[in-house]
Amino acid sequence: MDKLKKALTGRDNEGDEEKGFVAQAIDASSLSWGTRVQGFCACFVIGAVVALLGAIVLALGGSIKTFGVLYTLGNISAISSTCFLVGPMAQLEKMFAKTRVIATTVMIVSLALTLCSVFWWNKKILALTFTVIQFLAMTWYSISYIPYARDAIVTCFNKIIA
Question: Which of 20, 117, 138, 143 lies deepest, with the highest CB count within 10 Å?
Answer without folding.
Answer: 117
